[in-house]
Amino acid sequence: MDPNAVILIIEDDPKMRRFLRTLLESNDYQPLEAETGEEGIQRAAEHNPDLILLDVRLPDIRGEEVLSRLREWTHTPVVVVSGLDSEDSKVTILDAGADDYLTKPFGAQELLARIRVGLRHAEQVAPDDEDAVFENGELRVDRVARRVFMGENEIDLTPTEYRLLLTLVKNVGRVLTHRQILEEVWGPDCVGRDHYVRVYMAHLRRKLEEDPAQPEYIVTETGVGYRLRNI
Fold first, then answer.
1. For the chain (length 231 residues), average pLDDT per consecutive 10?
2. Which residues have C-beta within 8 Å of that of residue 122, sequence separation ≥ 6?
3. What's the whole-model pTM score?
């Protein structure tokens, strides 16, 4: 475990940021700081920190959204530090993708122990090949900014269309069944509603393909599902 690990602090309270920065520096970690969720997401993309400390109550977007957006392109460990102590709050933030949850106020040694655990877990996870920006032929998906391009043209997608495309991107080259797509995009309660997939795949093709009737990117695997081709 690298004692000089880079740790990103996403926290709007200047006193708490100063406390965390001092604690990290005194233990040979390299702190980065962000005051808002949007700034934190950008700094995570720019610096690829080894671990993130995240407050869930931020001035621009909620911590759950920060987590959700980070998890679209990175598995960096996230330790939430929050003043919310209810069981529901903890379950919600852990379900959103947090690795650990620490309630304020907390002791310095406890936080350092949680950081060490997070860094150890990160070392045990095989690195994946996901980048913040996915490129395949003319298709480019910026997972940080949530922007999609075909060549020089930006494509306007609805939230559901974007989730569907992201599911294909994360599994590029693999065949996904209707069930897998429904569970990933709409949730397990929608399994069996294959028409959802057919309708939204048609929407995506109209927006992304030069000829939707003869798609180059989103290929139908008859009787099984769909696949995003490697171009």
1. 83 95 95 96 92 94 90 89 80 82 90 90 58 90 93 95 94 89 87 90 96 94 88 84
2. 50, 51, 75, 76, 77
3. 0.70
